[in-house]
């Protein structure tokens, strides 16, 4: 039985003081929920303070990005070792905004994934098609290629510790959610791709989230689907609505 996992991606929002006061409200409301894994991903500036605020909490903390080199002359980048040093639990990689605005490639995603596994930080690997790919019916092959590339050279023993987030780009921040059936169809497809790369038992162990305009009205229907193990939440994770979304996963 896969435990559901709800992750809030705060993106480039919340100053340090805003992050702390918001996390205090979340902590109070979510402290008794142990049936669902919960995490928030603040900006780098707030990461350490949020982690300290949540030190003995059930709410875990993730980063929104990492660089795959260990150290050196990479101005502006953050290493997996630095994240591990402050006990970061998760790290989002391959988010469509990073692919689109910062030219992150499938090759980068694979190298980041390998580095995160080395430091025992759970990678949250984002995949998903854009609207023209869906309309031209190439969305399955696009997502398959993203998965195959991301998992290149990843040993089967690591697969169950990876989270995959299916995030159709046309649903991110648009208010247009994939229907629960569309989301389930792709998450099921992703599981089959993982099964063909490894085996069914391994595919059944990996958690696959849906992300794209999830809110407190649509979360329950999406999270009821058999192959959807949680949600990656952007906009609604910046509001107390996030509490209702987590409760929808119970
Ligand atoms: C995201 O950016 O990962 C996301 C799903 O955003 P939103 O929920 O705002 O669509």
Q: How do the helices and strands follow one another from N- to C-terminus?
A: EHEHEHEHHEHHHEHHEHEH
Quickly give the CATH architecture. Alpha-Beta Barrel
End-to-end distance: 13 Å
- The geometry reads as globular
> Taking all residues together, what is the mean pLDDT?
97
Strand content: 15-25%
Structural notes for this entry:
The protein is an alpha/beta fold and 250 residues long. It has a single domain, classed as Alpha-Beta Barrel (TIM Barrel), CATH 3.20.20.70. Helix content is 43%, strand content 15%. The chain has helices at residues 16-30, 44-53, 80-85, 96-101, 106-118, 131-135, 139-150, 156-159, 180-197, 200-205, 219-223, 241-248; strands at 5-9, 37-41, 59-63, 90-93, 122-127, 163-166, 207-211, 230-233. Helix 1 links the parallel strand 1 and strand 2 (37-41). The longest helix has 18 residues, at 180-197. The protein is globular. It binds phosphoenolpyruvate.
Short summary of the structure?
The chain is of the alpha/beta class.
């Amino acid at each position: 039985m896969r435990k559901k996992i709800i992750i809030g991606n705060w993106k480039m929002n919340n100053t340090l003081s805003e992050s702390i006061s918001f996390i205090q409200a979340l902590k109070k409301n979510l402290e008794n929920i142990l049936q669902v894994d919960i995490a928030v991903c603040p900006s780098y500036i707030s990461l350490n303070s949020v982690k300290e605020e949540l030190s003995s909490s059930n709410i875990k903390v993730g980063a929104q990005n990492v660089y795959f080199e260990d150290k050196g002359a990479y101005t502006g980048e953050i290493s997996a070792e630095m994240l591990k040093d402050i006990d970061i639990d998760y790290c989002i990689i391959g988010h469509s905004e990073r692919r689109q605005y910062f030219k992150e490639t499938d090759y980068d995603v694979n190298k980041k994934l390998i580095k995160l596994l080395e430091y025992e930080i759970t990678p949250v690997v984002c995949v998903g098609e854009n609207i023209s790919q869906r309309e031209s019916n190439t969305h399955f092959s696009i997502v398959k290629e993203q998965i195959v590339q991301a998992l290149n050279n990843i040993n089967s023993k690591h697969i169950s510790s990876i989270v995959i987030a299916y995030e159709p780009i046309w649903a991110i921040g648009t208010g247009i959610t994939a229907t629960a059936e569309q989301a389930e169809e792709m998450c099921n497809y992703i599981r089959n791709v993982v099964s063909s790369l490894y085996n069914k038992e391994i595919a059944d162990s990996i958690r696959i989230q849906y992300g794209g305009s999830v809110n407190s009205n649509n979360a329950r229907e999406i999270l009821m689907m058999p192959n959807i193990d949680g949600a990656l939440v952007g906009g609604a994770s910046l509001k107390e609505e996030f509490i209702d979304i987590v409760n929808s996963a119970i």
